[in-house]
Specification:
Structural class: alpha/beta
CATH class: Alpha Beta
Number of strands: 5
CATH topology: Transcription Regulator spoIIAA
Helix content: 40-55%
Strand order of the largest sheet: 1-2-3-4-5
């Protein structure tokens, strides 16, 4: 799994590429902690999963752990650009009731601006 990120205003977009499974998905936990330690003022962290093609229970666990860590720091968490199969699976296990899923990064940022107004 490859991870990269970019900061746009107060949003951090983390691009996930590859399999989001097993021990590989644990890299995301470390990566998010590193971003948070940089001290950048963030309102939201967005996982862009457009290039992630598989997820398992460990990946879901890391997602939920990230959600909890970010929630404690009052940083919103969202997912975007998921493949249809991944959206269906995450909705089936009701992850979308905790972590919002959007079509695009722009949709997430637009929603954040609307909530701030």
């Amino acid at each position: 799994m490859e991870l990269s990120h970019r900061i746009i205003n107060e949003a951090c977009i983390v691009d996930v590429e590859g399999q989001f499974i097993g021990h590989q998905s644990r890299e995301l936990d470390t990566y998010i902690k590193t971003i948070l330690l940089q001290g950048t003022e963030l309102k939201i962290l967005i996982l862009n999963l457009s290039k992630a093609f598989q997820i398992d229970s460990v990946g879901i666990g890391i997602m939920l752990k990230s959600y909890k860590v970010l929630q404690e720091k009052q940083i919103q968490f969202a997912l975007c650009q998921l493949h249809d199969e991944m959206i269906d699976f995450l909705k089936f296990i009701r992850i979308d009731s905790m972590i919002p899923i959007y079509d695009t990064e722009e949709d997430v940022i637009k929603r954040l601006k609307e909530e701030a107004s």
